[in-house]
Amino acid sequence: MARLEDLQQGTIVKGILPNQHERVTVVGRSWRGDIAIDLFYKDSMGNFGTELLFRSREPDLEIVDAGPIWKFDGDGEMFRLVSEAYRIQLAHLFDPLLALHTSDVDPYPHQITAVYEEMLPRQPLRYLLADDPGAGKTIMTGLYLKELLVRGDLKRCMIVCPGSLVEQWQSELYRCFQLPFEILTRDRIDNALTGNIFKEEDLLICRLDQLSSNKTIQEKLEDTSWDIIVCDEAHKMSASFSGGEVRPTKRYRLGQLLGELTRHFLLLTATPHNGKEADFQLFMALLDADRFEGRFRDGVHAVDTSDLMRRMVKEDLLQFNGERLFPERYAKTINYELSELEKDLYDEVTEYVCKEMNRADLIRGQRGNRIGFALTILQRRLASSPEAIYRSIQRRRERLEERLSDAQFGNQAEMTGIPTNTEEADDFYDETPAEEVETKEEEVVARASAAQTITELQAEIRTLEHLEKLAQRVRQNDMDRKWEELSNLLRAEELFGLQEHRRKLIIFTEHRDTLHYLTERIQTLIGNPNAVVTIHGSMRWEERRRVQEAFKNDKEVQILVATDAAGEGIIVDYENKFTF
Question: What domains appear along the chain, each with residue ranges and CATH number?
Answer without folding.
Answer: 4-64 (2.30.30), 96-316 (3.40.50.10810), 340-476 (no CATH), 486-579 (3.40.50.300)
